[in-house]
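Anyone up for a design puzzle?
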């Protein structure tokens, strides 16, 4: 037997309309009595008025119990508790048993709706109200029959009541018990689509693929939430087929009471098939509207698809030019089959400044600052100027990025750096510059390619007073799907850098640097409070011996950014004065466990190892290891890091007993 399930919505307006009429009738009847309005409104004699007030203040406390439901149905029980009027108003008891009964009757209708929404269409609900059982106090073992335990008075004596004793006219508490028989849950037997197109109506069963997209399965319990959400997913299915204006019609649910199943019918009105049409930009002030419209990911005349709309919105949001981005169709579909598109933006401030400080026992204090403009010429051009100062290095930097350069999602990038260096490995000045193209390749993958020019005038232990003029190419392939740049908890990073160089004044200086670096982040819990992080780095230089390489182009290791516990650049070959020589190959490994013990503080035990080798193909890969413990204070911009590390392979007269580091952000 099939029956159509319809939701009953009480029409509260009719009940409200009756209240003034009843009130008016009551007042007119009171006027005809001896008391008149004074009796009705409580303005009678003092004694009578006091009786009325005392009666109004007399209430009966009660408890609420729900029985008959499997304790494993936690969501169902919680939903019943949430809608119960008797439970919600328990702190405001009624003045009579009849008032409590009215609350219970109101709950029955609410409970039935909750049962249906959880797939129990045949549920039965009853309730009863009883006085709460009270336990009589146990008699005193030392008292005798017929005696009163109070002051040893006889049971025949009459005690005068005192204000400290409970009054006998206090109401007995009540217990409201709901008895619920949920019955057999109904299951989904079929999902049908009734699709009204401009030229025809199609009625059919949903395919397996469509069921998967709607998150529905034949045979699952017929709960309300997935059925309601399934309708929106069904709308999305037709949008993906090129119907941007599809709307959901009247949804019907047919129940088979004999089989305990339901059939869901989704009615969908597609509207006309459409292609992407003209683009209108709203809200643009400082940013050029044509530049914003140029972020559309679809080709002219391409059939509408919501993925293209989402991609366009994501790309615009990632420019950091806007506080809000909305991309939507603005129908109706025109006669040529095109649907207009609107892009609504709210611009954010285009300039910002920032900076930070750090300190380590090996590198000393350091500070950095930057100024950034993200819309220099009105089309999203970003210019960033920075300064870095420490005891080992002082430098100026400039970065420029021009988005949508020649092609969509392709950028022109340029950078320049000027540094003065004073490390144990080398001292002197360097200048370098780069110009090239950056573009996304695949999801989370980015490629950069361009030309570089460099100048160095450095003095090192095996390269005294040497100047180098270099030109070269730079190719970088990056992958990053982490969830946070300063404090990642999930995902991984990977980078491959290949850079061939050629000497401009010394034609014999030709070499190629190849490096690979990666890190992995695995969250142990869902909230990301406990994270296992690991990293690795390796590299080699091909083409020149170490002594023919500029000191700043060699590999070094040691310090806060590589192997904590060893001094800056001190891991690897050293000269007779224990100054680093650098090398043509490097290998680094590291792992740490990040435990966020409170909302603001965390601890991080870690271990790291690595080495630098004179040859591009080292004969062995012996590593120097270090271990330590870090502490984190979490701020809105990232964790403040304090790490203490000790070298496990301490070298006499070279390594200190420990090193510590303070900076912003995780070590990697």
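Challenge accepted. My sequence:
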């Amino acid at each position: 037997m099939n029956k159509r399930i319809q939701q009953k919505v009480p029409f509260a307006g009719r009940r409200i309309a009756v209240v003034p009429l009843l009130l008016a009738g009551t007042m007119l009847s009171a006027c005809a009595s001896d008391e008149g309005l004074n009796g009705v409104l409580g303005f009678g004699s003092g004694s009578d008025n006091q009786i009325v007030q005392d009666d109004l203040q007399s209430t009966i406390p009660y408890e609420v119990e729900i029985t008959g439901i499997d304790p494993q149905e936690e969501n169902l029980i919680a939903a019943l508790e949430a809608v119960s009027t008797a439970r919600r108003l328990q702190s405001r008891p009624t003045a009579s048993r009849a008032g409590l009964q009215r609350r219970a009757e109101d709950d029955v209708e609410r409970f039935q709706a909750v049962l249906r929404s959880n797939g129990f269409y045949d549920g039965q609900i009853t309730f009863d109200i009883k006085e709460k059982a009270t336990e009589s106090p146990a008699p005193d073992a030392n008292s005798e029959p017929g005696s009163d335990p109070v002051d040893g008075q006889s049971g025949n004596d009459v005690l005068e009541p005192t204000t400290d004793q409970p009054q006998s006219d206090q109401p007995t508490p009540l217990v409201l018990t709901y008895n619920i028989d949920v019955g057999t849950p109904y299951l989904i037997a079929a999902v049908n689509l009734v699709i009204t197109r401009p030229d025809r109506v199609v009625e059919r069963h949903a395919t397996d693929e469509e069921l998967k997209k709607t998150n529905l399965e034949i045979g699952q319990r017929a709960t309300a939430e997935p059925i309601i959400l399934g309708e929106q997913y069904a709308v999305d299915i037709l949008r993906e087929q090129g119907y941007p204006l599809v709307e959901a019609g009247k949804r019907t649910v047919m129940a088979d009471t004999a089989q305990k199943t339901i059939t869901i019918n989704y009615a969908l009105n597609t509207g006309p098939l459409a292609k992407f049409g003209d683009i209108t930009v709203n809200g643009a002030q400082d940013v050029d509207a044509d530049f914003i419209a140029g972020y559309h990911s679809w080709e002219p005349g391409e059939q509408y698809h919501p993925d293209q709309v989402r991609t366009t919105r994501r790309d615009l949001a990632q420019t950091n030019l806007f506080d809000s981005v909305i991309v939507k169709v603005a129908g109706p579909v025109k006669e040529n089959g095109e649907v207009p598109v609107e892009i609504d933006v709210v611009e954010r401030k285009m300039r910002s400044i920032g900076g930070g400080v750090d300190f380590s026992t090996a590198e000393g204090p350091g500070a950095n600052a930057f100024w950034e403009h993200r819309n220099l010429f009105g089309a999203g051009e970003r210019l960033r100027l920075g300064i870095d100062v420490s005891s080992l290095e002082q430098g100026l930097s400039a970065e420029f990025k021009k988005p949508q350069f020649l092609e969509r999602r392709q950028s022109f990038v340029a950078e320049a750096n000027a540094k003065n260096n004073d490390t144990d490995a080398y001292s002197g000045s360097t200048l370098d510059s780069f110009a090239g193209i950056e573009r996304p390749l695949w999801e989370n993958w980015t490629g950069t390619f361009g030309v570089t020019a460099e100048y160095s005038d450095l003095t090192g232990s095996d390269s005294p007073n040497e100047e180098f003029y270099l030109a070269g190419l730079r190719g970088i392939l990056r992958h990053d799907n982490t969830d946070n740049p300063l404090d990642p908890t999930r995902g991984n990073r990977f980078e491959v850098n290949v850079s061939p160089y050629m000497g401009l004044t010394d034609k014999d200086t030709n070499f190629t640097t190849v490096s690979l670096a990666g890190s992995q982040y695995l969250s142990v819990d869902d909230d990301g409070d406990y994270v296992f992080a690991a990293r690795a780095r390796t590299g080699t230089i091909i083409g020149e011996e170490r002594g023919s390489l500029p000191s700043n182009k060699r590999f070094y290791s040691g310090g806060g950014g590589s192997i904590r516990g060893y001094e800056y650049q001190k891991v690897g070959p050293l000269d007779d004065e224990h100054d680093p020589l650098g090398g043509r190959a490097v290998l680094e490994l590291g792992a740490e466990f990040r435990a966020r013990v409170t909302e603001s503080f965390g601890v991080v035990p870690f271990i790291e190892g690595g080495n630098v080798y004179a040859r591009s193909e080292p004969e062995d890969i012996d590593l120097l290891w270090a271990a330590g413990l870090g502490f984190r204070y979490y701020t809105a911009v990232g964790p403040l890091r304090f790490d203490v590390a000790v070298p496990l392979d301490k070298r006499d007269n070279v390594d200190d007993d420990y090193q510590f580091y303070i900076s912003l952000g995780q070590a990697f």
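A detail worth pointing out: The longest helix spans residues 12-32.
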